[in-house]
Amino acid sequence: MVVKRHRLQYVLKYTSFECQLLSINATRDDSTSGVTVAIIYRPPSSTAATIAEFHDELSEMFDTLSDVIDTDRFVACGDFNCGGDSPTSISTDLQTLFNTHGLQQFVQSPTRRTVKVSNLLDLVVGRVGSNCIFDVAVHPSHSASDHDIVTWKLSTRTKPPRQLISFRFRSMKNVDWASLQADLQCCELHTNPANTADGFAEQLDTVVTRILDLHCPLQERRRFASTRRDNRWLSADAVAAKRERRRLERQWRSTRNVDHDTAHRKSCRRANKMIVESKG
């Protein structure tokens, strides 16, 4: 097994949190099919602006690593310092961010305990339904720290299992539209329509299906299911907001201008909002 710094460690720089990126390969070659591990520490802060900056930069990192997230080859762990309203929850904004990027938080117990309060601050995060993260557990640190010890096991299997699915479709490429139109005009929908609404609806379904079967019959295919997230639910506004966010990110990275940085962060917040609204 080979563990080394990820190539993006030298490119990605964040101000609201510390991050070490590692690449873990089960083989001893330079394969790019290993698991990317992001070890994160966010200094505790109660400033709303600082927390918003953390969410923006974390979302930016997830965007950059979307390929390994999609293929279940990504794990983020560490002290996020974003506790929720209960001892076993995280902040609503952080949970929304995870949902937006198709991620799941796997720690189910408080990880920081004091005399007065317990919080869930130390997280293990991976793709929703991840097959590479398992046996997540929280153990006492025996007063060595006010944080407990979080352990988990990582499967270094390079690819998720491939699932074969069947689907049916009609090919509309070679349809003789004039002939189809003629058949529709001569069918019983025009010559002998049903005299009730329910009857006509059933007749419409039966007749149109029969004519479609004649001109473009159903075909069945089998293929391997994609491991990528399905983004077809995104609205046009959400897609446009994501493109604008990426454009402003490229602009800021090339200039390092403060105004461009501000515009990019605003676009991150807007894009995240649009994505969440699309999903809702």
SSE order and pairing:
Blueprint: E1 2-5, E2 18-25, E3 35-41, H1 48-64, H2 66-70, E4 74-79, H3 92-100, E5 103-105, E6 112-113, E7 118-119, E8 122-127, E9 133-139, E10 149-154, E11 164-170, H4 177-186, H5 188-191, H6 197-215, E12 218-224, H7 236-255, H8 258-279
Parallel strand pairs: 3-4
Antiparallel strand pairs: 1-2, 2-3, 4-8, 5-8, 6-7, 9-10, 11-12
Relevant terms:
12 strands, Deoxyribonuclease I, Chain A, six-stranded mixed sheet, alpha+beta, 280 residues
Describe the fold and architecture.
The protein is of the alpha+beta class. It has three domains: 158 residues, Endonuclease/exonuclease/phosphatase (Deoxyribonuclease I, Chain A), CATH 3.60.10.10; 61 residues, no CATH class; 51 residues. Helices cover 38% and strands 23% of the residues. It contains eight helices and twelve strands. It has a six-stranded mixed β-sheet with strand order 1-2-3-4-8-5. Strands 6-7 form a two-stranded antiparallel ribbon. α1 packs across α8, α3 crosses α8 and α4 packs antiparallel against α6. The radius of gyration is 26 Å and the shape is elongated. The protein starts with a strand and ends with a helix. The relative contact order is 0.10. The mean pLDDT is 86.
Strand content of the residues, in percent?
15-25%
Largest sheet: 6 strands, mixed
Oligomer: single chain
What's the helical proportion of residues? 25-40%
What is the top-level CATH class of the largest domain?
Alpha Beta
Could you tell me the radius of gyration in angstroms?
26 Å
* Continuous helix count: 8
- Enumerate the strands of the largest sheet in spatial order, edge to edge or round the barrel: 1-2-3-4-8-5
Count of distinct structural domains: 3
Name the poorly predicted regions: none
CATH topology (level 3) name of the largest domain: Deoxyribonuclease I, Chain A
What is the mean pLDDT?
86
- Along the chain, the helix and strand elements come as EEEHHEHEEEEEEEHHHEHH
Global outline: elongated
